[in-house]
Amino acid sequence: MTIDDNLDFTQQHTPRPWRVDASRMTAGLPEKRRHKRINVALPVFLENATGVTRDVSASGVFFWLNGRYALGDAISFAMGRAAHSGEFLLKCRGVVFRTEPRGEEVGVAVRITEPVVAPM
């Protein structure tokens, strides 16, 4: 492989060709997600912090908050939402499997291991 000094690292190391479909954009990689993601901003409540979701699926959630989390950390949190039948609180336990630093915040991807829906 030759390196072009006029291109940045991302441009030189991005697999081609890009494939686009209605639900995702990949760089020629197979989709590994088991459940469809829903982009929704829900409040997230942890023991010592609050945050907001970016997306939620049946098996996981990604949210932004202030705090520090590492891969493999066990995490307990709750998400709230108003529904037609009243407000509910989804209490969850999970495992952190990805983090994304962003200034003062960190994005946390959590694989849900124990979900429990409870009325507020």
Q: Would you mind describing this structure in some detail?
A:
- The protein is mainly beta and 120 residues long.
- The chain has a domain at 38-119: predicted glycosyltransferase like domains (Thrombin, subunit H, Beta Barrel), CATH 2.40.10.220.
- The chain contains 1 helix and 9 strands, in the order H-E-E-E-E-E-E-E-E-E.
- The chain has a 6-stranded antiparallel β-barrel with strand order 4-5-6-9-8-7. A two-stranded antiparallel ribbon has the order 1-2.
- A hairpin with a 3-residue loop joins strand 5 (50-56) and strand 6 (60-65).
- The longest helix has 4 residues, at 9-12.
- The chain is globular and about 35 Å long.
- 11% of the residues are buried.
Which helices and strands occur, and which strands form pairs?
Blueprint: H1 9-12, E1 19-20, E2 25-26, E3 38-39, E4 43-45, E5 50-56, E6 60-65, E7 74-83, E8 86-102, E9 105-119
Antiparallel strand pairs: 1-2, 3-5, 4-5, 4-7, 5-6, 6-9, 7-8, 8-9
